Amino acid sequence: MSEMLSLTRAAKLIGVTRAELQKKIQIGELLSYDGMVNVKNLLACYPDAQLEDNAESRRIAQIKERAFGKRVFERAMPDAEVLAARLTEVSRTLTYSQVQVEQFTALLGRLWDKLSEMESQLNSESGLAMENLKVWIKREVDMAMEPGFINPLAIKDTMLHIITAQVTVLPSKHDFLVEGHDTLLEAAMRSGIPLNYGCSGGNCGLCKAKVVSGEVKKTRQHDFVISDAEKSQGYVLLCSNTAVSDVVIEAEVANSVQDIPFQQITAQVKNMGHIADDMILLHLQTPRTQRLRFLAGQSVMLRIGQSFSADLPIASCPCDDRNVLFHIHRQNGNLFSDYVFDRLKQHESVEIEGPHGEFILHEKSQRPYYFFAFDSGFAPIKSLIEHALSLEAKSIHLHWFGSTQQHIYLPNIAHAWQDALDNFYFDEHIAGFDLRTVNSKREEILFKQLDSIISADPNLLEGDIYIAGPEDAVTIAEQYFLDQGLPKTRVAVASVK
User: Fold this and answer.
1) How high is the pLDDT of residue 64?
2) In the chain, at which end, N or C, are there fewer CB atoms within 10 A of the end residue's CB?
3) Sorting pLDDT into bands at 50, 70 and 90, what band is 181?
4) Which one-letter DSSP state was computed for residue 103?
5) Can you tell me the distance from the alpha carbon of 146 to that of 138, in angstroms, rounded to the nearest whole number?
6) Phi, psi at residue 327, to the nearest 5°?
7) Considering the chain, what is the average pLDDT of its residues?
8) Conformational region of residue 396, where left means phi above 0, alpha means psi within -120 to 50, and beta covers everything else
9) Helix 7-14 and helix 18-26, axial crossing angle in degrees, nearest 10
10) Contact 188, 175 (CB under 8 A)
11) CA angle 462, 463, 468 (to 5 degrees)
């Protein structure tokens, strides 16, 4: 086991989030060197990590105990060839270590004989010092050879190397773990890293990347042709290969909306259902060979036939690019919403155009995230939060304002996040009036509610603010936070009809 670990691997071994480790680094409890942490420092911060039980071992135990274990186990473990290759590498490392131990034991024996030879030639005073030295050496060797002295993370790290592989992306220095049967592209997307790709089916070649070090394995055939010259340089398709060992790749990462291409995709209605009296959850599914690439928080134009269209925020995470969700609000007289509520059928075709919009997450920020959703503004906020969760953000706070209680139409999702995550906080607020129309009196009420939130959480003004909802409410909330002294770069807004 290396003395230095990446934050991703260290967090996995200890059973905490990267955000928690980053917090300890910021306050000086844990030392970091170019994004790596020292094993001894890690153990000093987490002495309980020496216990046999940890998040990873519990997860494996649960997999084995389930009655339908085979299917779950196959999702969690790599395929047989990858597993064999990783076990071979572990065996090679173990054999090398055993040879080193044998050589060390032989060397120790020769050293002991040499010390005894020298001891017979010394005077009484020097002989006593030599005897003390031999006692000290014996005690130190006995301690080092005790089973309990083994680095408690070493066994866990070996297990982690068998069931996962770590991928480092250059030049961005992003890193992520590949688990189970995931391809390099799938694993990156699950970790919230927007690598460049197109079809994700091996046809377009946009996910072509160079393997700098490590071993990969092709898991599916692809139609895109990589030249022999590029193959010799280590180029592969990320959508068609998985990591056998820890890997370093050179690949493009989308850092802004300008890096996301405009797309036109014909999707089908996978499912739809009411999530409130005047709100439908629309689930569209794209073709396997033409998935929607977008950044969390962005919007698209939906078109049905030649007559019905609407500009809508995406309410799902980019990590599942084939299944795209929307929250459709009933607007009487609006042709698109009327069609969705009254006539749209399962398997019907819907055109997707986009994405567009700059209401996206500032991923490099180390500040806590504060999200303010007004009524159906929860749709883009949900997308942002799901992306933040995949990034293991430091802390996430959601304040959902509803015109009425019914306008907070998916509270169970937010409550589930809060129950499952230590770093997620959720509060509901009832405005008591239509947030689409905010006059001076209503503005005063809204200001008081925002004042009370800051009074209860003075750290709020140290975070990044994201606001989405009807234009009137969003404009007032934005101005409120700007008046508190926050720069415009830390207050992102999106209007949702």
Assistant:
1) 37
2) C
3) confident
4) H
5) 12
6) -105, 110
7) 87
8) beta
9) 110
10) no
11) 140
The number of angstroms, rounded, from the C-alpha of 365 to the middle of its chain's C-alpha atoms is 15
On the question of pLDDT at 230 being above 90, the answer is yes
Q: Per-residue pLDDT for 56 more than 50? A: no
Write the single-letter amino acid at 108: L
For residue 191, count other CB atoms closer than 10 A to its CB: 19
Is the sign of the CA dihedral 486, 489, 492, 495 positive or negative? positive
Say how far apart CA 272 and CA 340 lie, in whole Å.
9
**Structural domains present in the chain:** 163-255 (3.10.20.30), 258-356 (2.40.30.10), 369-495 (3.40.50.80)
Task: Please work out, in degrees rounded to the nearest 5, the angle formed at the alpha carbon of residue 288 by the alpha carbons of 284 and 289.
Answer: 120
User: Which two three-digit tokens encode residue 257?
Assistant: 């909306």
Kindly indicate the confidence band of residue 192, based on its pLDDT and cuts at 50, 70 and 90.
confident
Per DSSP (E only), the strands in 180-288 are 208-213, 216-218, 235-237, 241-243, 247-250, 263-276, 279-285
Residue of 467, 328, 311 lying closest to 398 (CA atoms): 467
Task: Return the higher-pLDDT residue of 110 and 466.
Answer: 466
Question: What is the C-alpha separation between 47 and 24, in angstroms, rounded?
Answer: 14
The Cα 67–Cα 373 span in angstroms is 41
The structure tokens 């190397």 sit at 161
Confidence of residue 54 (pLDDT cuts 50, 70, 90): very low
Distance from C-alpha of 62 to C-alpha of 26, rounded to nearest angstrom: 34
Report residue 461: phi and psi, to 5°. -70, -5
Cα separation, 440 vs 213, whole angstroms: 62
Angle between helices 55-65 and 7-14 (to 10 degrees): 60
Question: Angle, to 10 degrees, between the axis of helix 378-390 and the axis of helix 411-420?
Answer: 20
Does residue 373 sit in helix, strand or coil? strand
Q: Tell me if the pTM is above 0.70.
A: yes
One-letter amino acid at 189 equals M
Residue 126, classed as helix, strand or coil, is helix
Cβ-based neighbour number of residue 394 at 10 Å: 20
Provide the residue type at 281 as one letter. L
Cis amide bond preceding 78, omega within 30: no
Q: What is the reported pLDDT for 147?
A: 60
The residue behind tokens 């994201």 is 466
Q: Specify the residue for token string 């160079």.
A: 210
Q: What is the DSSP letter of 429?
A: E
Residue 195 pLDDT greater than 70, yes or no = yes
Mean pLDDT computed over 189-200: 86
pLDDT tens track for 378-417? 999 999 999 998 887 889 999 999 999 999 999 999 998 9
